[in-house]
Amino acid sequence: MIACVAVVGHQNNPLYLQSFTGADDALKLHHIVHCSLDVIDERVNNPKRSVITLNESYLGLLYPTESYKVYGYLSNTKVKFLVVTTDLDVKDTDIRSFFRRFHAAYVDAVSNPFHVPGKKIISRIFAVRVSGIVKAFAPGTYG
């Protein structure tokens, strides 16, 4: 089950964060997402990485905790997509498919002529689309 999704700008400014659990966990999920940003910066700025992995958008597992796992995806414009999941046995293919759909929804949202680049995404249509993508996510059957 997906607990939270987030979109973070290239300057680590939060653009969108939606929690799918109770309100009690919202602050904890914000903290987990924030901690994951350091891992992304560490992976992206590591000079020992090969050229093949630098071109890869999917960053994989970023930050495991006792009850959550955080996966990351980096767009060409350095916008970060994060997913916090409670399912500890998620296949990479399922998460990659999720990120492709999540990224497509983001592209549609920021392509709106009324959206100000670099500002929070406040589109209700985007929120509904993300909720639909999350509800459709079922490990092993996604794709």
TrEMBL record:
GO biological-process terms attached to the record: endoplasmic reticulum to Golgi vesicle-mediated transport
InterPro entries from the UniProt entry: Sedlin (IPR006722), TRAPPC2L (IPR044760)
Gene Ontology CC entries for this record: cytoplasm
Entry-linked CDD domains: TRAPPC2L
Family: Belongs to the TRAPP small subunits family. Sedlin subfamily.
PANTHER family (UniProt xref): TRAFFICKING PROTEIN PARTICLE COMPLEX SUBUNIT 2
UniProt protein name: Trafficking protein particle complex subunit 2-like protein
